[in-house]
């Protein structure tokens, strides 16, 4: 089993809304590759309470579907704490979670967001064919580039 003691990988989405399930599907690929399940977290959306959770880790990856399209079918960006936090009853963006983590818990995990291009968001289980290709490409890139750095 591959263990990443200082890394948390959060898959954000909803697998009953077609390509919105890309974040969860990324985690499923990690599970199939025998990653430590303690380092994988399935979320429908981020909430302010997640600041406490990520404060325990050195590295955090947020994996989510996106509606914008990139040449490679995915984007990986280093993210930093937002300058301000606006509260909502809906989702809180990852950079605002980082802000809360820094200001409340005095911790600054190194964070990335992996945005995987999605195409359809209807109520249906299963990714579109294009989204599946983007998922595989993002996963392979993550394994080649990031995994050696955090293992």
Low-pLDDT residue spans: none
For the record, the CATH class is Alpha Beta
Q: How much strand?
A: 15-25%
Rg over CA atoms:
15 Å
Q: In the residues, how many domains can be counted? A: 1
Number of beta-strand segments:
5
User: Given the helix and strand composition, which structural class is it?
Assistant: alpha/beta
Listing every helix as H and every strand as E from the N terminus to the C terminus, the arrangement reads EHEHEEHEH
The fourth-level CATH homologous superfamily is HybD-like
Sequence of strands across the biggest β-sheet: 2-1-3-5-4
For this structure, the CATH topology is Rossmann fold
- Return the average pLDDT rounded to an integer: 91
Count of runs of 4 or more consecutive helical residues: 4
In the CATH hierarchy, the architecture is: 3-Layer(aba) Sandwich
The portion of residues assigned to helices is: 25-40%
Principal-axis shape equals globular
N- and C-termini, Cα separation: 12 Å
């Amino acid at each position: 089993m591959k263990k990443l003691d200082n890394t948390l990988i959060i898959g954000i989405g909803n697998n009953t809304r077609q390509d919105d399930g890309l974040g969860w599907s990324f985690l499923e690929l990690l599970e199939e590759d025998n990653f430590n399940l303690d380092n994988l977290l399935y979320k429908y959306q981020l909430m302010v309470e997640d600041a406490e959770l990520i404060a325990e880790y050195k590295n955090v990856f947020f994996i989510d579907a996106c509606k914008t399209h990139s040449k490679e079918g995915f984007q990986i960006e280093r993210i930093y704490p937002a300058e301000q936090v606006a509260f909502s009853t809906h989702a809180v963006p990852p950079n605002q979670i980082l802000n809360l983590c820094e200001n409340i818990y005095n911790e600054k995990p190194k964070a990335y967001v992996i945005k995987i291009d999605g195409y359809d968001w209807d109520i249906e289980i299963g990714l579109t064919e294009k989204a599946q290709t983007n998922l595989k490409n993002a996963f392979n890139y993550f394994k080649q580039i990031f995994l050696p750095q955090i293992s």
